[in-house]
Amino acid sequence: MCAAPTRFCRYWLQIIREALSNVVKHAEAEHCWLSLMQDNNGTIHIKIEDDGIGIRPEEQRAGHYGLIILLERANSLNGTINIGLRPAGGTLVYLSFPPAYRRLSPETGTCHA
């Protein structure tokens, strides 16, 4: 498996940081869970959940751009983002990103972007 390009890793980190910042600032949560995984196809999956008061994207307040930032960053990496309520209460932010690279080349043993 090849390492993802630095640009992608930096954006993923910024997305996670923004989502966690939203939990701290707005969720009134007692717990927050973060999972980050890469499946066998190379797709990156990021899930941030909290047990706070919950948010709906349409409830975004004027002057608050956290959700817009998340959406724009996800789109810039051809990712998808879903924001909604957890069945048990709180908010769920789920993102997925297609592979940022192809697998190792069998001929050269190098990664290809």
Keywords:
about 30% helix, 4-stranded antiparallel β-sheet, about 110 residues, single chain, 4 strands, Heat Shock Protein 90, alpha+beta, two-component regulatory system
Number of strands: 4
Principal-axis shape: elongated
For the record, the CATH class is Alpha Beta
Beta-strand residue fraction: 15-25%
The average pLDDT value, as a whole number, equals 84
Bin the helical content: 25-40%
Q: What number of structural domains do the residues give?
A: 1
Tell me about the largest β-sheet: 4 strands, antiparallel
Can you tell me the residue ranges where pLDDT is under 50 for at least 5 consecutive residues?
A: none
What's the number of helices?
A: 2
Write the H/E string, N to C: HEEHEE
Strand order of the largest sheet: 1-2-4-3
Structural class: alpha+beta
- CATH fold type: Heat Shock Protein 90
Q: How is the quaternary structure best described?
A: single chain
CATH-level-4 superfamily name: Histidine kinase-like ATPase, C-terminal domain
For the termini, the CA-CA separation is 12 Å
Gross CATH architecture = 2-Layer Sandwich
Radius of gyration: 16 Å
Pfam families: HATPase_c
GO molecular function, one term: protein histidine kinase activity
Organism: Stutzerimonas chloritidismutans AW-1
Keywords: Kinase, Transferase, Two-component regulatory system
